[in-house]
Design goal:
With 179 residues, the chain is of the alpha+beta class. It is built from six helices and six strands; from the N terminus they run H-H-H-E-E-E-E-E-H-H-E-H.
Length: 179
């Protein structure tokens, strides 16, 4: 009987852990908050409609980062049917820390948060130590060979740590289709 209880507790913990990793509700809610400024939502009803709609997304493959960091690409497109309209056609990229519930805007945004993301790599076990180490954060060459995320130019982003040039392709925000 005692073994049965231990097995039940084991499965309950595993189920809770897996559900926590797979639950994307909070992540998508935070992504929608970041994307709200890229739509023409004006009224409270349009905001509610926007937050009630599904947001398409794709998890991106990554290397060098711990399992707690998810990389997500969210394509948005001009939508003439719904009450709100995105005035952009672009694929935005976020990093999301499942443990701290922090979202980092890495591609397509006016305020690129790679600097904050990079600083967070130095703490809280955000590195997959089977593949990388903190010394891999010390130079651009080590960083770009060790860490990878589909559709992100880490060499360009790393260069922005020292200087904040406005014309770097990796930090240029999406441009609206309609002004």
């Amino acid at each position: 009987m005692r073994n049965l209880i231990y097995i039940f507790l084991f499965f309950a913990v595993c189920t809770k852990t897996n559900a926590q990793k797979l639950d994307t509700t909070l992540m998508l809610f935070k992504a929608k908050i970041c994307l709200l400024e890229y739509s023409n939502v004006k009224s409270n009803n349009e905001v509610l409609d926007f937050f009630n709609r599904d947001l398409p997304f794709t998890f991106l493959k990554s290397k060098g980062f711990s399992n707690r960091l998810l990389f997500v690409e969210v394509p948005i497109a001009f939508d003439s049917i719904s009450a709100y309209k995105f005035v952009y056609n672009y694929k935005f990229i976020f990093a999301y820390n499942c443990e701290s519930n922090v979202i980092y805007r890495l591609k397509g945004f006016r305020d690129n948060e790679f600097n904050d993301f990079f600083r967070a790599l130095h703490s809280a076990n955000n590195i997959d130590y089977n593949v990388a180490s903190e010394t891999d954060l010390s130079s651009m060459k080590k960083f770009v060979t060790t860490f990878k995320v589909d559709n992100l130019d880490f060499e360009c982003l790393y260069k922005t740590l020292k200087k904040r040039p406005k014309n770097k392709d990796c930090i240029v925000p999406a441009k609206p289709l309609i002004d």
